[in-house]
Amino acid sequence: xxxxxxxxxxxxxxxxxxxxxxxxxxxxxxxxxxxxxxxxxxxxxxxxxxxxxxxxxxxxxxxxxxxxxxxxxxxxxxxxxxxxxxxxxxxxxxxxxxxxxxxxxxxxxxxxxxxxxxxxxxxxxxxxxxxxxxxxxxxxxxxxxxxxxxxxxxxxxxxxxxxxxxxxxxxxxxxxxxxxxxxxxxxxxxxxxxxxx
Length: 197
Known about the structure:
Layout: H1 3-19, H2 29-36, H3 40-46, H4 50-69, H5 74-87, H6 89-97, H7 104-120, H8 124-134, H9 138-161, H10 169-195
């Protein structure tokens, strides 16, 4: 491991230790540096701010490991993602509380949108049929739909990480998958009813 990665890991462990005793928004770069016994200059050599450090933690601990695993199936990817979050839930509970510019929540929302898009992207012909009936632009409706569903799933994930939904990671993925099935069945029923009118 390079010296740069060693320093980044030390800073990451320092932030994780600090989060155990105080809210993320009350932790400063100075606090992290003091805990790790490194200078602010060293911190800023590696990261632009504490939010950048959180993104690095997520990327190094989950995404880089996942890239090496060559997972071919989307639901296996989902299981790996949620097992990771379940294992690190105290850390992510703390960093997801904070909203605003440069927040991990915003970064995670963008990541999840890209991750979820293949799962939730509807069949274009179905969108086009609804768009014609409702006098909407099909591309705009499809984009709105994907973001709407992604935001709903993100909300469920945040509630789960916060402990509001008490499920093991694999159970949570099974519930997400089941919910998708219910949505599809309901959509098919509604489409069938609308065509009968």
